[in-house]
Amino acid sequence: MVSIVGLGIDPSDLTEGAKQELLSGKKIIVRAERFAAAVRALGVSFETLDCVYESSRNFDSLHKNLAARVLGAAKERDVVYCVPGSVEEDISAQIVLKKSRGAAVFDSVSKSADAFRRAKIFSCNRAAYSAYDLEKYIRAVLPLCVYDIDCDLVAGDVKLKLCDMLGDETPCFFVKNGKVKKIKLYELDRQKEYDETTALVVDDTPLLKKKRFDFYDLCEVMRRLRAPGGCPWDRAQTHESIRKNMVEEAYELVDAIDSKDDGKIVEEAGDVLMQAVFHAQLGEDRGAFDCADVTSGVCEKLIFRHSHIFGGDNAKNADDALSVWERNKRAEKGQKTTGDSVADVPAGFPALLRAQKVGKRASKAGYDFKDIEEAAEKIGEELSELLQAVKEGDAAHISEETGDLLFSAVNVGRLAGADCEESLHESTKKFVARFLKTESLILQDGKEMQNLAPEELWAYYERAKEQIDADPSR
């Protein structure tokens, strides 16, 4: 049988129940000699696990080894395991509790509670983490206490993690041996001494005084903009009125990606994220859905479609992973036939992109040309039909045949393995560059493009093309 006693921060923190347990004659194990003052004051014999510290490779293995020693001793006789601070904040104690049914707990003042009290922060909603377990702190919940900052290296790791989340200049409280000092977060690893009593406390920061923000702050900003008394323009919007904004922001993000400018990517990705949050807030205002529904939906989708990661499927390479994704996607959407999949391609896609996706999905059912040569023959047929429509002068027929010709060209590109949307984008970019260079050469000669004969204009174009192609920086 195992009992676990939290020793608190000061010997006076030991509860009467804990004292009686320690005086019960059971074997007493203290996590380390430096934590044994309260036990020693009772005049009882005990052993410590300092040797486990010396033989453990890292903090994770330390706690596992500590727990193993306690559980091993408990097989021979009843054991009282004493840990500093609170049982709930000691990882080795938590391991013992999970593996020892019916273990009794005599808790005391936690390291975080003591640090919060000394920093005079008494909020009910607060977070506390061991410095050795801080990777679990993924959302900037404040107030925050980080305890177990027992050396400058650990302090440096904590600083890097929190500076990224909260900002370098965030005001903090440095707590050590009951004393409190105000510091900036970037100063955490510049203090003179650290020991097992060292903790960092960060108070809550009002929204408008924050230097770093997270997703939940974005949701709060949008909520305030849409709330009574908020921004008149934001309050007047609907899903439909800002529909085009999402398309524009998405294209601006693509441009930023193409420019390989990280600053622009950050900005434009933020704008896309803002549009998504805006629509989520509009949904919440209607009582239809909210940000939690949106994030829950996308997480469920990612987990379900990645069954080769989160389930029992296997994928040895990217192609296998894509096949698993597509199969799960069809199952998720209830698509029983290829037709269901073809019809599911969004009508709002750019026409070229939609044409290629429709053709690709149809080809999976065998509805395709036998090879690229057969597809290329279709271009000639459609071009002849377009020219005939032009002769007839029927605008509707011209539009129809133009669409057929473009669709045929997409099929050829698809069968050639090209991304038609990207290919046309690059060709358009190339045309713009050649046009601008042609115009520049004409203007240098004191001429105007619209006054040139076709042959002369073509000659300028060829010169521009040669100069651009010869430019190594192109």
Automatic annotation (TrEMBL):
Signal peptide: none annotated. The keyword Hydrolase applies. This is Nucleoside triphosphate pyrophosphohydrolase. InterPro entries: 4pyrrol_Methylase_sf (IPR035996), MazG-like_dom (IPR004518), NTP-PPase_MazG-like_C (IPR048011), NTP-PPase_MazG-like_N (IPR048015), NTP_PyrPHydrolase_MazG (IPR011551). Its EC number is 3.6.1.9. Gene3D superfamilies: MazG-like. GO terms for biological process: dATP catabolic process; dGTP catabolic process; dTTP catabolic process; dUTP catabolic process; response to stress; TTP catabolic process; UTP catabolic process. It is an enzyme of class 3 (hydrolase). PANTHER family: NUCLEOSIDE TRIPHOSPHATE PYROPHOSPHOHYDROLASE. Residues 237-310, 376-434 form the NTP pyrophosphohydrolase MazG-like domain. SUPFAM superfamilies: all-alpha NTP pyrophosphatases (SSF101386), Tetrapyrrole methylase (SSF53790). GO terms for molecular function: methyltransferase activity; nucleoside triphosphate diphosphatase activity. Coiled coil: none annotated. Keywords: Hydrolase. It comes from Candidatus Borkfalkia ceftriaxoniphila. It comes from the Bacteria.
